[in-house]
Amino acid sequence: MSAHDSHPTGLSRWLFTTNHKDIGTLYLWFSFTMFLVGGAMAMIIRAELWQPGLQLVEPHFFNQMTTVHALVMVFGAVMPAFTGLANWQLPLMIGAPDMALPRLNNWSFWLLPFAATLLVLSLFMPGGGPAAGWTLYPPLTVQGGMGMDFTILAVHILGMSSILGSINIIATILNMRAPGMTLMKMPLFVWTWLITAFLLLASIPVLAGAVTMLLTDRHFGTHFFDAAGGGDPVMFQHIFWFFGHPEVYILVLPAFGVFSQIIPTFARKPLFGYTSMVFATATIAFLSFIVWAHHMYTVGMPMAGELFFMYSTMLIAVPTGVKIFNWMATMWRGSMTFETPMLYAIAGVFLFAVGGVTGLMLSITPADFQYHDTYFVVAHFHYTIFAGSVLALMGAAYYWIPKWTGHMYNETLGKTHFWLTMIGFNLTFFPQHFLGLAGMPRRIPDYALQFTEFNQWSSVGAFILGAAQLLWLYILIKTVKGGEKATDKVWEGAEGLEWTVPSPAPYHTFSTPPQVR
Amino acid sequence: MSAAKGSYYLPEPSPWPVITSVGVFVLALGFILFMNSISAGSWLMIGGAAIIVILSAKWFGQVIGESEAGTFNDQVDMSFRMGMGWFIFSEVMFFAAFFGALFYVRQLAVPWLAENELLWPGYEGGWPTAGPKGAEVIAADSQPGPNQFSPMGAWGIPALNTLILLTSGFTVTMAHWGLKKDNRGQLVVWLFLTIALGITFLAFQAYEYSHAYTQMGLTLGTGVYGATFFMLTGFHGFHVTMGTIMLIVIWLRSIKGHFTPKHHFGFEGVAWYWHFVDVVWLGLFVFVYWLV
Question: Which of A10, A345, A391, B24 is deepest in the core (most CB within 10 A)?
Answer without folding.
Answer: A345
